[in-house]
Amino acid sequence: MQLGAIDRASDRPPYRQIADQLRELIDRGTLVAGDKLPSEAELIEHYGVARMTVRQAVQELRNEGRVVAEHGKGTFVRQPVQVRRLASERFARRHREAGLAAFSVEAQKTGFTPNVDQLEIATGPAAPEIRDRLRLGDDEEVVSRSRRYLADGQPVETAVSYLPASVAAGSRIVEADTGPGGIYARLEDMGFELDHFTEEVSARMPTAEERRRLQLTDGVPVVVLVRTAYDTAGRPLEVCDTLKAAPAYVLEYEVPAR
Amino acid sequence: MQLGAIDRASDRPPYRQIADQLRELIDRGTLVAGDKLPSEAELIEHYGVARMTVRQAVQELRNEGRVVAEHGKGTFVRQPVQVRRLASERFARRHREAGLAAFSVEAQKTGFTPNVDQLEIATGPAAPEIRDRLRLGDDEEVVSRSRRYLADGQPVETAVSYLPASVAAGSRIVEADTGPGGIYARLEDMGFELDHFTEEVSARMPTAEERRRLQLTDGVPVVVLVRTAYDTAGRPLEVCDTLKAAPAYVLEYEVPAR
DNA sequence: ACAGTTGACTTGTCTAGAGGAGCTACCGAG
DNA sequence: CTCGGTAGCTCCTCTAGACAAGTCAACTGT
Q1: Contacts of B223 in chain A (CB under 8 A)
Q2: Domains contained in chain B, CATH given
Q3: How many angstroms separate the CA atoms of A224 and B117, rounded?
Q4: Is the Cβ of A202 closer than 8 Å to some Cβ of chain B?
Q5: How do A194-204 and A154-164 pair as beta strands?
Q6: What pTM was estimated for this model as a whole?
Q7: Which of A134, B108, B146, B244 sits at a 20 to 30 Å CA gap from B75?
Q8: Which nucleotides of C are covered by protein (CB under 7 A)?
Q9: B162 vs B236: CA distance, rounded Å
């Protein structure tokens, strides 16, 4: 393995020099996805530094999301996960008319087994931000559906939908199984004609709870996608807060130039 | 300051318990944006643990992007940066007909002083991925314009545009100043009618170089946005790879439901 | 041949310092 | 009153271990 030396006279601290060299091995392709890094003991012996110095160097690469440490096994160059390209047409009417919710559309295209768990349905007062987005009055309630999506058994996303209770109550939206085509098909069954959605996309590091629910390792951000469904009158019918493991998703949009 | 104790009998390691308690102070609003955390010395004394244990606890919050350590000053709850909501209509024709490039449109709306630096213009062979996106032949060259954008002097984004040399050569696109309305205005000046753009959005942790160029601290991911401009014949005219500091951006899209 | 055990290797966590470097406020001298 | 120096506080970096816990391959006993 082509590890160099560290320069004690350098301004750059040894742990960063070691991190630089390991990063270089990955960037150059000397180490590729799935390869094991030199062990801590090997790095300690090679560079003649303390164990904490070596650990700090490797932690830099962990924080960058480039390597994954596995207790008792070693540290490995991260395997890329299958990237799901989410086309915005996944909410087209033809899909829900065919009885497919968006996640199922995605599963069919990409070829994975979709599953939903940790489902929680509740009715109650809306948080201020949700109330604003749904343009509700102070005392109007919302129905919320919280859930986690799995692809081939692996958590990939969490989502919470909010709809005005006045819209959703009494429909299958408040049941465990919303029925074919999901929430949007039920809304259209009830006579609401969906016109468009807005999607607000951002990214950040996950909270500890989010890391746990999505089974994320170090250095993996999440994509936050807040989608609002509007009817033809421009009225917001549903807000959906979703969280996705960032490495697994590319969101695709088409934007007019006119 | 309401710090608790650590439970040495717990399965949860002390450094994580300390991180949990500091996180709780922030979540509960006991510490708010800009507030200083207890110093390392204070935490060491309070919890009766080693310095490295305390540093590891604080590093958890740094990696989550929640706090920022400043050498010699202290560790502070991160100040939220001004969030720029990027509406997809920033590429509408009316803006470039008014002589405004997208960044200037954004600056006018949000009210900051826009600037561009680190400009590099080159002509040469295309990387395979760019060649594919622009649907170029093996020997066709591209013009590339690499630059960094600053808002009120602060780096917020880097971008590289690629256009077929056969399209861009001889125009102001290869000059330092592309002229009013930017690249897209020049393309339309030359007779190309822009029809739509695709935008592919993802997120990841920045590389070391990207951190440097964007002046990012620990635990701050970047949003990667690859935009492709198409003319009315569906031909790709330009590919623009951009990188944005994630906390500063929310991307907004409108998606039809039909 | 198989199951259980063990040893070696690996990462995880912690201790107890020590010294370096940045920052800031205060004090003393001019 | 101003400026330079200094002391104290702060985070950064490193050392040199020690012990815990997970993994895996090899060995041993049945």
Answers
A1: 201-203
A2: 14-77 (1.10.10.10), 84-252 (3.40.1410.10)
A3: 30
A4: yes
A5: unpaired
A6: 0.90
A7: B244
A8: 9-18, 20-24
A9: 11
